[in-house]
Amino acid sequence: MSVALRYSGNRPDAEEIMNESFYKVFSKIESFDEDKEFKKWFRRILINTAIDYQRKYKKLKIYATDDPIESGISINDGYDNLAYEDLLKKIQLLPPGYRTVFNMYAIDGLKHHEIAEQLGVSVGTSKSNYSKAKKLLQSYILGTNNLNTSEHG
Q: Where along the chain do the CATH 1.10.10.10 domains lie?
């Protein structure tokens, strides 16, 4: 459920993603390779289902940009002990496109070329969305953003 919550903006959407994921797992269980780890297989199905759900309901907008990518953003300004639930709430506030790229890269460990391929965008767009997601998340954590995400979708 924690993965579904990170990709969705709310609990009802996360529950829908979980239900669809379980359906896919049970309906395709014969395709599972027993030599591999079940947890990783299920996680991949869950992530793909979350992305498909966002696309289906047109909640997933990836923002293409030609802006230079800024690096070196640090979120460790005394917030190392931020509770998981608090951080999850901040991640859920990100616009769906930013949230998806952030989750795929920072938490699920995908490379930008993998994200770009899966989402059908350029590598630069993936990097830009990740950079902007980090900045926005940092502003949420530091309380310097009024949490108005309407300008981001």
A: 84-152
